[in-house]
Amino acid sequence: MADNSGYLPDPKGFSTTAIHAGQDPDQWDSMCVVPPIVLSTTFKQFGPANFKKYEYGRSGNPSRDVLEQSLAALEKAKHAVCFASGLGSLTALMSVLSNGDHIICCDDMYGGNFRLLDKVGRKFGIESTCVDTTNLDNIKNAIKANTKMIFIESPTNPLLKITDISGVAEIAKNNKILFAIDNTFLTPYLQRPLDLGADLSTYSLTKYMNGHSDVIMGAIVTNNTELAQQLRFLQNAMGIIPGPFDCSMVTRSLKTLSLRMQKHRSNAVAVANFLSTHPKVLKVIHPALPSHPQHELAKRQTSGHSGVFSFYIDGDLKASETFLKSIKVFTLAESLGGYESLAELPAIMTHASIPADVRKELGITDNFIRISVGLEDPEDLIGDLKNALEAI
Q1: Rounded to an integer, what distance in angstroms lies between the CA atom of residue 89 and that of residue 241?
Q2: What is the distance in angstroms between the CA of the first residue and the CA of the last residue of the chain?
Q3: CA nearest to 153, candidates 124, 125, 185, 131
Q4: Which one, of 47, 95, 78, 49, lies nearest residue 199 by Cα?
Q5: What is the pLDDT of residues 162-191, one digit of tens each?
Q6: pLDDT for res 91
Q7: 3-class secondary structure for the chain?
Q8: Which positions are annotated as active-site residues?
Q9: Distance between CA 117 and CA 119 in Å, rounded?
Q10: How buried is residue 212: exposed, middle or buried, by Cβ count under 10 Å (0-12/13-18/19+)?
Q11: Which pLDDT tens digit goes with each residue over 215-246?
């Protein structure tokens, strides 16, 4: 594919794995092809504390098991653990640590992640330091005696910075530090963090993995059995579990993930190329564009980019509001990764919890727009953006 030229190849067998992993009809008495949704909160026992496999819905559920098996298989990993939300995944990850431990994280991240680390983590004695992880020396210099984890987003949200994942993995290994990466933006179809040396790959399944804007859920995938056991304990002990119906919805959605990511990828490149030539657009930040500062790095460690990217318009807050109120095919709303195209203003929406001085330093300004390019016809998306820009 033209928009994937020079990147890592798309993973072979991905769709087959998504359709079949953990879903063999032979495991069910009914031999049903589509895994059943098991809503029961409790399960009959042969005797006191003598049960077949499941005892209580919080501790385990067949529908959740199917999804977790599928997620692990898509990254060729040993374990996957699902949580009630993407932030639930980070809550569990943070709970692996202890009072007095230190986390190094990226300076540009989802506002909810920042809020959790800064407002909740610190309250429980977990220190965090945010640095620009595109420069590996910043990570090395931030390491302390109590540093236990490096947690990054790559690409970051919303500035789309790309970090050298293999480079960070080497630093983490040499210093015996856990390395976790939020892979929500790319999914295992476009980027495979565990193959690049990460210990844990985390997700907001709410976004591309489910892809239909109707489920809130998170997950962590790992090859580390000891970590997986800790996470599964926390999943049960903290009660941050997803419901079985939602698990079934995501299992279904994974079957079309490869097709959807291919379309998100090609649509976004077409839209980014259009915006790059528009006189009212000052700058487009999309890793597939040669103008992106980490473009070559992105090509070395991904199979392309998804539908989410950002750009600056020539104007102020009023101009941004006019633009966002003028879109018709795109919807003004938070979130990303669904089949529908969305647009938002991070400075006062998804990243409002980031302190104003930090937003200014990063470049999350009032004329900075983030969009999530969906699965509509690209000509309609481009026409919609063109009309909205002309309204400024």
Answers
A1: 10
A2: 35
A3: 185
A4: 78
A5: 999 999 999 999 999 999 999 999 999 999
A6: 98
A7: CHHHCCCCCCCCCHHHHHHHCCCCHHHCCCCCCCCCCCCCCECCCCECCECCCCCECCCCCHHHHHHHHHHHHHCCCCEEEEECCHHHHHHHHHHCCCCCCEEEEECCCCHHHHHHHHHHHHHHCCEEEEECCCCHHHHHHHCCCCEEEEEEECCCCCCCCCCCHHHHHHHHHHCCCEEEEECCCCHHHHCCCCCCCCCEEEEECCCCCCCCCCCCCEEEEECCHHHHHHHHHHHHHCCCCCCHHHHHHHHHHHCCHHHHHHHHHHHHHHHHHHHHCCCCEEEEECCCCCCCCCHHHHHHHCCCCCCEEEEEECCCHHHHHHHHHHCCCCEECCCCCCCCCEEECHHHCCCCCCCHHHHHHHCCCCCEEEEECCCCCHHHHHHHHHHHHHCC
A8: 58, 110, 182, 207
A9: 6
A10: middle
A11: 999 999 999 999 999 999 999 999 999 999 99
d(CA 224, CA 126): 22
Task: List the Cα angle 161/167/168 in 5-degree steps.
Answer: 75
Give the pLDDT of residue 4. 55
With CA atoms as reference, report the closest residue to 232 among 358, 374, 81, 108. Answer: 81
Cα separation, 263 vs 304, in Å, equals 11
Tokens in use for 276? 């790059």
pLDDT of 30 above 60: yes
CA distance 41 to 29: 20
Residues 3, 201: Cα–Cα separation, whole Å: 25
What sign for the dihedral angle of Cα 103, 105, 107, 113? negative
Closest CA to 159 of 133, 179, 139: 133
Cis bond upstream, residue 155 (ω within 30): yes
CA 270 vs CA 33, 130, 158, 274, 316: distances in Å: 38, 33, 19, 6, 26
Looking at residue 194, its pLDDT comes to 98
Torsion, Cα of 123, 126, 132, 133 (10° steps): -150
Which single residue is written with the structure tokens 């809130």? 216
Farthest CA pair distance, the chain = 73
